[in-house]
Design brief:
The protein has eleven helices and two strands, in the order ααααααααααββα. A hairpin with a 2-residue loop joins strand 1 and strand 2. Helix 7 packs across helix 11 and helix 9 packs antiparallel against helix 10. The chain starts with 9 loop residues before the first helix and ends with a helix.
Amino acid sequence: MPGRGPRVPGTTRVYAYGAAAGLAVDLLLGDPRRGHPVAAFGRAAAAVEKRLHADHRGRGALHTAVCAGTTVALGALAARTVRGSRAASVALTAASVWAVVGGTTLGREARAIGGALAAGDLEVARERLPHLCGRDPQSLDGPAMARAVVESVAENTSDAVVGALFWGAVAGVPGLLGFRAVNTMDAMVGHKSPRYRRFGWASARLDDLAGWPGARLTAVLATVAGGNPGGALRAWRADATKHPSPNAGPVEAAFAGALGVRLGGTLSYGGRVEHRPVLNGEGRAVEVADIDRAVRLSRRVTWLTLAACVGGRILNNAVKRRYA
């Protein structure tokens, strides 16, 4: 009928309602305190690693294929089982989103560290920092911890929220679970330690590939929602490629420009010191108050991601109908 908008297919409604419900539950409850599905996956992946580990890329690729492939297959089986019921499909999508995103817990941990820093309690801040990132807390003073927190909020907005929602929009529940599995494996074995330099290569490269679209979407939305679009865009264009990570670079640069702060510089992981390029060099040093600003920006990006993903699905379906 004239005047009506485009028809929204059932699968898009399932994703939209389920993802919104899952984000709402995450907002209210945060991560499950016990029996977290990601922790269970981590234990299973570690058990597979014990059987397959060798200083060889092929064995690492097999480990990646077994863990990620099994997760995607289980997600597909679960989605197929409930596909006859829209309510059950929405509930499964909501449960999957709640299981794989971590935006609320990310914000809580960041603000807890910010509160300790604001109170001048550096020891408490150092105790909590490992909950958020892998930096060596004893090597950091207050400003360096504040910068580490802002960088972690930026990167994890992409890894723990936007990337999952994107792949959920593309591939439903299997996409949600598969992305989180790949991201978790990268955190477990994707670093360049002697044990994982070869074995973790496949997980690291697959994570780079899976995270590519979500990272760019995060950077775009941070530019739009950050209050300083020009600064975010300039920092993104000028500095993103300087970062050693192809996905963290655009995200951290856009956040830096949006917040008007400098990120990057010297940091320490596991006793190894790295000197990374500065992102948004014209910005000021990070202050404790910027932690809360970063968390609020992360939340805006989260909800804009849901809107963008649902809108993208609607547009894609409209184009398909037009040219069918």
